[in-house]
Structures are given as C-alpha cells and as structure tokens.
Design brief:
By secondary structure, this protein is α/β, with parallel strands linked by helices. The protein contains 15 helices and 15 strands. It binds pyridoxal-5'-phosphate. Pyridoxal-5'-phosphate binds next to helix 6.
C-alpha cells in the first residue's frame, strides 16, 4: 500500500513501548513517527512493497522472513522501530556509529553548515575541507598529512590503490586472504570473497594474496609490489586480530621492498579497537591510511585517505586533478568530521572503547565457555568483537532471537559463521550487560532448539 493518507491526517503517536533509563530523550513521541503512514502495519506493507519492487527483491524477502523491523528513529545506542520498540544497536551500522546515533554536537555543526553552504561549488577554496584535513593530520599517526576526501570506504580504498600505483610506478598490490576493502572494482579485487567477485571477472590485474597475520609470507610477495594493503584487524573477514607486532614487521618488509604500506582503517579507525587508529597498537605509521565509517560521527556519508606528503607528491605533484570527486570533501561532510573528531577526543572515547571492549569480550567468552557446542571462539579488540559459531546454522537462530530481545547484531560479510558485536563507543556498562544477556539467551535457545549441529 502506497502513499498513506497524508502527513498530519490521522497521524499516530507511538509511545515508547520499551523505555530504558538513560537511553536518551523521549525521541519516538512525535506526530510523524510513522513517516506519514496511517498505521504501523500500513508502513510495513508500504516499505516491504517498495523494497520488493524497487530496491532489492530477494533481499526484501530475506529481511521479511527474518522479521526485520523498520527503523524510524535513533539516538545514542538505541534505535526505535515502527512499533515503538527500542533496540540496543550492537550492529552499529557495521562500525559507523562510534559516537552513537544522532550525536547532538555533530548535528548542530551540520545544521549550522547547512544554513550557510552545503556542497562545494568546486571553483573556490573551501574552509571546512582545509580545517578537517588539518585536524585529521594532527590526529593521524606520524607524518601522515595530505588527505583526499570522498563519500565511502570503497572510494577511499580506490584512491589509495591509485595513489600507490602512481607513486611507485608499479602495479602489484599485495592483499590478505579474507580481506574486505569494499565492492567497487579495484577495492573488490583486493577483497577476499569469491562470492562477491565471481560475477565481475576479470577483476583488476596484479593482486597477490597472503595469509593475514603472517609477516614472513610477505617476503616473496612484496617483490616489485606497489603496496601491501591490510586491515589492522580484519572486520568483515570474521574479526581476526593479528599477533602484536604484525604491522611493525609488515612496515619493515615494505620498506625493504620499496612498497607502500596502506592501512585500511575504514572499520578500525577512530577508536573502534581501543586505539585512536588500529595502527597505533603497533606504533606504526603507514604510508597511506583509508578511513570512512566513524569519520563523520554517523551523520553524513564520508570517506578519506590520508598519505605522507612525499608519497602524495610522487604521484600527484604535477597532476592535481587526475583523482577527484564532485561530492568529496563537501562542506557538510567536513563540518561533520571536524565535530566528530572533537567529540572523540574531548569525551576520550578511545579509552571508553578499551574499557567496554574488555567487558564485552569477557562476557562473550563466558557465554562461549557455557555453550562450547555452539560457540567455537570469541575474539576481538576494543569494541570490535566476533563470536564464531561452531556451525553457521546457529546464526539463523541467534541473531533473530537477539533482535526479539531488543539487541541488533550482524554477521560479518566474508565469514557468516561469525557474529560481530560492534556498538557505539559511548555504550554504557549496563548496556553491554543487556546485550550479553541477549546473546546468552540466543545461544542457549539455539542449543536447546537445534542441539549439536
Ligand atoms: C576495512 C573496510 N574497508 C572498506 C570498506 C568499504 O566501505 P564502504 O562500505 O563504505 O564502501 C569496509 C566496509 O565494511 C571495511 O570494513
């Protein structure tokens, strides 16, 4: 059913069916909570039909079967659905919502900028682009200095791969097994899942793969390579944490081979892993770092890479316009990024991620110890935690059960046996406990229902 009966007419008020202390303002009580639909059921029918006919028919069916609700509002760690039910967001937009949803300081900055100037006219200097790039350089490790701004993680990776090729005059890109770098052709070529690649072959030439976490495997692979691209912690590959010192050893090997080190921090950046950047765990300065997700505090889509000046100059000193983006570096995105970086520092969210991450990891490990037949392993760094199931089949029970208990969680893209827990860095100890209780309920239910698979 389309169109509802018009905004305002017969508008429903949703009451907060599941209010929690400290979960933000009473955000759901407004006349347009149902986006103008006459009832929650009408909205459900309209959205499903739109998805089925105009968005993605098979995905619409899968989402419907798994009981996916409609998100209508979000604040802090909480998302409210069209029935007014509150969910703790432990999927966190796969790492986007480092500051939580709708952070007031970022919204205020974006609002103020929108009133002034939203998108760049492109022919003049842009204040916010300069400021955001300067702040990013101040926060980034070592002498990383020059930024290219775009609109997503995959574009940041495309930019980094092109920069590496142009700077070195070499073509080979070394990447890791099970990596995830995005789905545009270049980034996809460096990613490691056959299902995502098969329909699009031939991909970009010259990608060589090495096992993740094994520095010695780089020795032969790096010969004549433009770059080694690596995630400090593999997120979509199943939350794989390399041994300490891995990036340091990779740095040394890249230097010896004359290859650049690209750290893909799209998911690990901005405090996610209990370090400002994942590279900081090893005290390593990469040549190029790619960023997105948390960069704008979950308000405006944004991506960027930041590179060492000499590397950037080797590629583009005489070619300032060969890699550009119309929307990249917009005033809105940069104002959001500036505000988000300030909140991250001022509220010490890096330390918060470390503390709450330890709680989450320990709690998930306790669940694993109780149900070893269902949970094979729990691993993570900071607030990026993976729960590896003994059998993929358990996930189909656990994730919907957690949702019913009011907690969102998600699979990792390249490894469907791993449930990732990735809440905002502002999550409280009580919220972590609630999510752990939902996880335990899901795991216990899966064991009871499905037995040993
Ligand atoms: C490490 C990493 N790189 C790149 C990407 C691609 O980002 P996007 O989905 O914004 O294109 C992702 C997305 O999950 C990621 O985790």
């Amino acid at each position: 059913m389309r169109g509802a009966s018009g905004r305002g007419s017969g508008a429903r008020r949703i009451s907060r069916a599941d209010p929690r202390p400290g979960d933000g303002a009473a955000v759901i009580e407004s006349n347009d909570a149902l986006y103008g639909a006459p009832s929650a059921r009408d909205l459900e029918a309209e959205v499903f039909e739109d998805y089925r006919r105009y968005v993605n028919p098979p995905l619409a069916r899968v989402m419907k079967l798994s009981g996916s609700p409609i998100e209508v509002r979000a604040q802090g760690c909480t998302i409210w659905d069209h029935n007014g039910k509150a969910y703790l967001d432990f999927a966190g937009g796969y790492g986007v919502f480092t500051l939580g949803h709708s952070h007031p300081r970022v919204i205020a900055a974006v609002r103020a900028q929108m009133e002034r100037l939203s998108l760049s006219g492109k022919t003049m200097f842009n204040v916010q682009l300069g400021r955001a790039s300067r702040r990013l350089a101040e926060l980034a490790p070592g002498d990383l200095a020059i930024s290219f701004w775009c609109n997503s993680g995959t574009e940041a990776v495309e930019g980094a791969i092109k920069l590496a090729r142009a700077a070195t005059g070499r073509a080979k890109i070394v990447a890791t097994l099970d990596a995830y770098h995005g789905k545009t052709l270049g980034a996809l070529s460096a990613s490691g899942r056959e299902t995502f690649q098969a329909p699009f072959r031939p991909l970009m030439d010259g990608v060589v793969r090495v096992p993740f976490g094994d520095a010695a495997a780089l020795d032969a692979a790096l010969t004549d390579a433009a770059a080694f691209i690596v995630e400090p912690v593999q997120g979509e590959g199943g939350v794989n944490v390399p041994p300490p010192g891995y990036l340091r050893a990779a740095r040394e090997r890249c230097d010896a081979a004359g290859a650049l080190l690209i750290a893909d921090e799209v998911q690990t950046g901005f405090g996610r892993c209990g370090y400002r950047f994942g590279c900081d765990r090893d005290g390593v300065v990469p040549d190029v770092m790619t960023l997105a997700k948390g960069l704008s505090g979950g308000i405006v889509p944004v991506g960027a890479y930041i590179a060492r000046t000499d590397v950037w100059n080797r590629a583009y000193a005489k070619l300032p316009l060969v890699h550009t983006s119309t929307f990249g570096g917009s005033e809105l995105a940069c104002a959001a990024a500036l505000a988000a970086m300030e909140v991250l520092e001022a509220d010490d969210l890096v330390a918060a991620a470390r503390e709450r991450g330890a709680q989450l990891l320990a709690g998930a490990r306790a669940v694993a110890a109780e149900f070893p037949a269902v949970v094979a392993d729990v691993r993570g760094l900071g607030l990026l935690v993976g729960v590896e199931l003994a059998n993929e089949g358990y996930g189909g029970w656990i994730i919907p059960e957690m949702l019913r208990a009011g907690v969102t969680a998600a699979w990792t893209l390249n490894q469907q046996r791993v449930i990732r827990l990735e809440p905002p860095l502002i999550v409280s100890a009580a919220e972590v406990d609630r999510a752990l209780a939902a996880l335990r309920k899901g795991v216990a239910g899966a064991y009871e229902k499905l037995g040993r698979l």
